[in-house]
Amino acid sequence: MITVALAGKPNAGKSTFYTAATMADVDVANYPFTTIDANRGVTHVRTECPCLDREERCGTENCRDGKRYVPVELLDVAGLVPGAHEGKGLGNQFLDELTNADVVLNVVDASGGTNTEGEPVETGSHDPLEDVDFIEEEMDLWLAGIVTDNWEGVERKSRSPDFEIEETLAELLTGFGASEADVAAVLRDLSYPDDPKQWTDDHRDALARDVRRRTKPIVVVANKADIAPDGAVDRLRQGTDKPVIPATADGELALRRAAEAGVVDYDPGDVDFDVVGDVSESQRRGLDAIRDVMADFGGTGVQTALNYAVYDLLDRVTVYPVQDASKWTDGTGTVLPDAFLLPAESTPPDLAYAVHTDIGEGYLHAIDARSSRRIGESHELTEGDVIRIVSTAGP
Fold it and tell me: 317 vs 169, which has greater pLDDT?
């Protein structure tokens, strides 16, 4: 399962974002380091379900009238402050938790209402642009420290006649989520000495920076955009080369709770909602305020940020394996029961291995359930494909 991590300074709204996205109970408070131990939960990215192309909706628990929600893991860790790579604040604990993340959402207080340490200040008095780059810098410096601390081992291995620097560095960086292919791609674009003994701190820092960028891409979530000064979100977008998604985690959480209570009709990622229950005048004013924000930003931004991280930054497509190509069901008759997030350009054998190693090893051929035609092993799967895998390991 893809892991999305929430990063950012304390009190930027990470825990509120996490609660809104997972509906799990966590501590949310207006002071730094509310989160001490990492919170792990399941959230979802949203896409169109293939059942929209059929006469009836599939009715699975992750499909709401054609809105398909595909599970991903969401990780919320302790807030990061400048100097975290040296252990300041809860830095080492925070950074260690990021090793298994596939993509990072840097939650920034776009309102400028918290200082660098996450302490409340007057709205607009802190520049949120300062909170964008330091997260990336702390991650880069932390990884560079790991590389430097373990470089002596790389030098020892270089004495072996069968030494391969790509393989050795991949072993070193595996715990950070880098594969040998990642390391090879980074090294192709780096200028470095063949002998590890001649590497300098600059070489190691460049390696760490480029590996982090490749394995831990970042989306900036401009949280508290609903209370940010005019132009604050645009200034964030102009001040960084990273994607910036305006959001109100508070607004999303309020809607999710209202939907659970039967007060509103709302699905995560909708651009609007309907009031279907009895509400007080003050509640209606609050809901109207949220609706105004959603009109400005095209929703609350929480689902948008998750979708952008997975579908755009990680370049994933949603593919649906079935056993019956005509009915689009599994062995129990459930329509479109499973959805897999695969890298773009994945092939039917890749899907087979994603379903189960045995299915992949016994792969024979695949059928496109939409056309009922066999497709080749090199066929590139695309968003919304419904595929039957024929394997010696199963039907």
Answer: 317
Domain with CATH 3.10.20.30 in the chain: 317-391
Residue 339 CA to residue 342 CA, distance in Å, equals 10
3-class state of residue 16 by DSSP: helix
Report residue 55's pLDDT band, with 50, 70 and 90 as the boundaries.
confident
3-state secondary structure of 76: strand
Identity at 228, one-letter amino acid code: A
- CATH class, domain 317-391, is alpha beta
Strand ranges inside the chain, DSSP E:
3-7, 39-48, 63-64, 67-76, 103-109, 218-223, 244-246, 264-265, 274-275, 316-322, 340-343, 363-368, 373-375, 385-391
pLDDT at res. 90: 45
CB pairs under 8 A, 24+ apart, for 195-199? Answer: 195/158, 196/151, 196/154, 196/155, 196/158, 196/165, 197/155, 197/158, 199/151
State the pLDDT at residue 89. 45
Which residue spans of the chain are classified as CATH 3.40.50.300? Answer: 3-38+77-140+217-310
CATH topology for 3-38+77-140+217-310? Answer: Rossmann fold (3.40.50)
pLDDT mean across residues, the chain? 89
Cβ-based neighbour number of residue 284 at 10 Å: 11
